Amino acid sequence: MIEVNGIRKKFGRKRVLQDVSFTAEKGEVTCIIGINGVGKTTIMNAIMNLTPLNGGQILIDGEKLSKKSYEKITFIPDAIIMQPTMTIAEAMQFMADFYDSWNQERADELLDFFKLQAGDKINNLSKGNRAKVNLLLGLALDVDYLLMDEPFSGIDIFSREQIADVFTSHLVEDRGVIITTHEINDIEHLIDQAVLLDNGEVLTQFSCEKVREDEGKSVVDVMREVYQP
Ligand SMILES: Nc1ncnc2c1ncn2[C@@H]1O[C@H](COP(=O)(O)OP(=O)(O)OP(=O)(O)O)[C@@H](O)[C@H]1O
């Protein structure tokens, strides 16, 4: 489990995270929801230990963040970081050379799943296919937790559906996934836990299935109540 306990972050005088706490379990997709600029990326960076905090702490499976955390967790940014002149096969080879946790079998399966051609140059791919390659490179790592910043942003409906399908497939399996979004509509069906952020604070965290079953509400219904009381 990833436990975010009361984290605080200031940039200069600006308080971006006031007191943020939530948990993300293995085998679940946890979605951090909030408008632009609310601090979602800052939270992801904090979990990856890429930004110093002004308070609070983050535990992964009960342990404080350290270099060892990177064996358990990976961050999939919202844009591909590979050289655009590389082919998909070259990008996969680069990852295989760099990461011990690279799982070639899963990478080949993902290539198939997303109907990508290994010989295609990243430069020549559509935005949707680039997003799929980006996801492939992250999902092919054998790590327990995957962090993704806005994986559906600016992608056409068909690519979005294919990307959504991977979350419910064995390719994500029992791993823990944290995604951020400011646009919940298309992905509501694949998230297990929702964390609603505003003004640098978590307004509420809830199980989407539980509110659906107990109260007959969708995530958007809860968002309306919380953001527009
Ligand atoms: N390195 C930085 N220096 C100064 N301010 C920063 C820095 N990084 C982020 N901020 C500010 O912190 C706030 C939160 O930024 P963050 O990128 O975490 O928001 P976000 O919720 O991910 O936004 P978006 O949905 O637009 O990606 C913003 O007001 C941003 O301008």
Automatic annotation (TrEMBL):
Q: Read off the InterPro entries from this record.
A: AAA+_ATPase, ABC_transporter-like_ATP-bd, ABC_transporter-like_CS, ABC_Transporter_VariousFunc, P-loop_NTPase
Domain ABC transporter as annotated: residue spans: 2-224
Q: Which domain of life is it from?
A: Bacteria
Give the keywords, sorted.
ATP-binding, Nucleotide-binding, Transport
Which SUPFAM superfamilies does this chain map to? P-loop containing nucleoside triphosphate hydrolases (SSF52540)
Check the record and name the CDD domains matching this protein.
Answer: ABC_DR_subfamily_A (cd03230)
Please provide, alphabetically and separated by semicolons, the GO molecular function terms listed in this UniProt record.
ATP binding
Name of protein = ABC transporter ATP-binding protein
Organism encoding this protein: Lentibacillus kimchii
